[in-house]
Design brief:
By secondary structure, this protein is mostly beta strands. Helices cover 9% and strands 37% of the residues. It has 1 helix and 11 strands; from the N terminus they run αβββββββββββ.
Length: 156
């Protein structure tokens, strides 16, 4: 099962109202449990099915936080960029690399905004809109849920 199939399954379970789904295929088992507040995904892949070692998270060099800029209370004029999956939010490819976007940066479709790590896969999240980043709504290296707001973007 690839990450796209898992994402589709999570979306389906979240919207269907089903409380739990378990799927077992050769060498792979996934259980998705949901309630109104959250969705929990447990996946098991036997060690012999791993194809590449996962990069170790580096905690030595923290990424600098974005400058604090308060977004106006009325956010209806902004586009909300949401997480397409459950995982861990990262603002840069590694602690040594530059941050993808900061508050005030102009973005266009195809620009990488962040990375979300899901099941040891690092997924680049690209912008689908043009605009200026007004607020970053998630902290670096923090867990995010499916459909959680990540960025507020002012359309240009």
């Amino acid at each position: 099962m690839d990450i796209k199939q898992i994402q589709d399954l999570i979306r389906f379970v979240s919207k269907s109202g089903v409380n739990e789904v378990s799927i077992e295929q050769e060498g792979f088992k996934i259980t998705i449990k949901t309630n109104q507040a959250q969705t929990i995904v447990n996946a098991t892949v036997p060690a012999e099915h791993h194809h590449a070692p996962a990069p170790a998270p580096a905690a030595a060099a923290p990424v600098a936080a974005a400058p604090a800029v308060e977004a106006p209370a009325d956010t209806s004029k902004y586009i909300t960029v949401r997480s397409p999956m459950i995982g861990t939010f990262y603002r840069s490819a590694s602690p040594e690399k530059p941050i993808f976007v900061n508050v005030g940066d102009e973005i266009k479709p195809g620009d990488v905004l962040c990375i979300i790590e899901a099941m040891k896969l690092f997924n680049e999240i690209e912008s689908e809109v043009s605009g200026r980043v007004v607020k970053i709504l998630s902290d670096n290296a923090s867990p995010v849920e499916y459909d959680q707001p990540l960025f507020l973007v002012e359309p240009l």
